[in-house]
Amino acid sequence: MDEMLAQARPKLACRVNGNPFSGEIEPRTTLLDFLRDRLHLTGTKKGCNEGACGTCTVLIDGKRMNACLTLAIQCDGRDVTTIEGIGSPDALHPVQQAFIAHDALQCGYCTPGQILSAIACIAEGHATNADSVREWMSGNICRCSAYPQITAAVLDAAGRVGATDA
């Protein structure tokens, strides 16, 4: 069986954080494992590994996806953005700035997924009020219960950037 898989390794060509990647990949590799193990982008965290917590949220062509439920090969020809692909230490993304300003993190484990989901929530036009933010961010669990701060941060960031800038 492993010999068949070795012979059937498809090629993956995608962009991760604006950088092109091209190479063979095992068909059953999840995007999460590809990012962490192959590209060493460890900002995307492994939480439940079942798509229930949102800790592994990344953006694929600007849409939020759970990297643990997405096969890497599904990203062929697509743009993948991880937490490492937004902002920099010298120029934080407005959502990162808002999370700091509103103390919207405690242990920080869920923060990368929360921030990427927030960027998508704003871009999708759902960051209009607290109820909408809570609903559209409900796929991202914070075990420390920083939900009021997260909601405030998303609303603040939405006020700073337009939907097309997120």
Could you please describe the fold and organization of this structure?
The chain has 166 residues and is α+β, with helices and mostly antiparallel strands. It folds into two domains: 2-85, Ubiquitin-like (UB roll); 94-160, [2Fe-2S]-binding domain (DNA polymerase, domain 1, Orthogonal Bundle), CATH 1.10.150. 34% of the residues lie in helices and 14% in strands. It contains six helices and five strands, in the order αββαβββαααα. Strands 2-1-5-3-4 form a five-stranded mixed β-sheet, with helices on one face.
CATH architecture of the largest domain: Roll
Structural class, by secondary structure, is alpha+beta
Helix content, binned percent: 25-40%
Cα gyration radius (Å):
16 Å
Could you give the topology of this structure?
Layout: H1 2-7, E1 11-16, E2 19-24, H2 31-38, E3 57-60, E4 63-66, E5 79-81, H3 94-101, H4 111-123, H5 130-136, H6 147-160
Helix pairs in contact: 3-6, 4-6
Considering the chains and any ligands shown, give keywords for the structure.
single chain; Ubiquitin-like (UB roll); alpha+beta; 2 domains; 166 residues
Summarize the model shown.
The chain is of the alpha+beta class. The protein has helices at residues 2-7, 31-38, 94-101, 111-123, 130-136, 147-160; strands at 11-16, 19-24, 57-60, 63-66, 79-81. The protein has two domains: 2-85, Beta-grasp domain (Ubiquitin-like (UB roll), Roll), CATH 3.10.20.30; 94-160, [2Fe-2S]-binding domain (DNA polymerase, domain 1, Orthogonal Bundle).
